[in-house]
Amino acid sequence: MSPFNHSKQRGSAAVIVIIVVVVGIAAVLLIHFLSRREPAAVQNFEQLVLKVEKLNDQIMSREDKIRGMVRRYNEAHPTGAIDTAGLGKFGLTPEQAEVLAQRVAQEKDLSYRGLLQEVIDLNQEVSRLNLEMQEVRSRLRPPHVVQKGESHFQVAMSFLTKEIGINEEEALQLVEQEALFPELLPGFEIWNYWGDGIFGTFVTQGEARISPNELMRISKRKIDQERSTLIQARNRAQEEVTELETRRTELAGQLEKLEVERTQALAQIAVMAEQNAELARQLNSVVYQAAPFSTFEKLGVLDKPALGKWRVADLDKMTETKSIDLRKTQEIVFSAADVGLSKIGKAVLFPRYFVEGVDYRIELPDDRKSGKVTLLKPERFQLVKLAVALD
């Protein structure tokens, strides 16, 4: 074999080796890229959620336009106004649509006939959009509708621990990797996704009056306004400082405030569940004070007209109040010694609109040294202040 052929073979082998190396490197890069991509299932889930939000916006926009058009028509036809009480998430009711169709046939004013026809066309479009949205929603796990007092963190943790069955520590790690909304409005919809060890959570407007992004913009504007006010006040107090020093201090203050706000926002997420528990306790509590009639009269809690019975003056003037959690007990216990009496002759519960024997029961033992009030209908006493007057 000639030297030329040997050289040609070596060159071909080198080319093959280079191609193999390049393909190998490309394969490694491709695997690395794909490993960092969000799974297609999560992307598809997010796209469906965004489509639900877009359809919802389109429906609300068209419903607002329908209301405006019908309002214009009703103002011009006060004796033949169209009832729009049934106009809701699914457009006009069949009865309203029928009335509009009849009005189109009867209307002689071409401009109003066109207006009514446009309302009918818009209503048909709303129906179509609703069908499309129902089809999209049918492909998703039903969302969680936010109630008053709920947080994004709380809903996400509940989904992972209760519906999926993940332990709390692992669920917390997954939730901390997500961008949660720090503030929610009742009616927002939270869409949660779980698959192949991947957790995703998204918030849409749902039935709320504004969108999540609009709420964030409002909150940001409020923070910016408060920050601006503080900066202006500080600058007025530092008139002797040079312009450069003032600017440096201003920037340092802004950075410090932003860091504090970030820390507070993270802490708020962690304590939200505890705050909800405290709110529940307050909701189910009743505040009371047991004292002689004379004490309540001096405090201005009760008064007695010259001719008449004792009545409530101001329960907020009670000074030594206690409270009970109605979820744990329905009894208010008191003793003669605690209020400076040797014995208790009678006990009266104020306000008097609660009916003894129906709403509550007062029991005094034979020795008259103590007594108790049993709340027979505890739900009526939530967040109520009571005065137990003794004599």
How does this model look, in words?
- The structure is a single chain.
- With 391 residues, the protein is α+β, with helices and mostly antiparallel strands.
- It folds into four domains: 40-138; 144-204, no CATH class; 228-282, no CATH class; 284-390, no CATH class.
- Helices cover 53% and strands 15% of the residues.
- The strands form four sheets. It has a four-stranded mixed sheet. Strands 1-2-3 form a three-stranded antiparallel sheet, with helices on both faces.
- Strand 5 and strand 6 (311-312) form a beta hairpin.
- Helix 2 runs antiparallel to helix 4 (110-138), helix 3 packs antiparallel against helix 4 and helix 5 crosses helix 6 (168-176).
- It is extended, with a radius of gyration of 35 Å.
- The model is unreliable at 1-11 and 17-39 (pLDDT under 50).
Blueprint of the fold:
Layout: H1 3-36, H2 40-76, H3 94-106, H4 110-138, E1 144-145, H5 152-164, H6 168-176, E2 189-195, E3 198-204, H7 212-237, H8 243-283, E4 285-292, H9 293-299, E5 302-303, E6 311-312, E7 322-325, E8 331-335, E9 347-350, E10 360-363, E11 370-375, E12 385-390
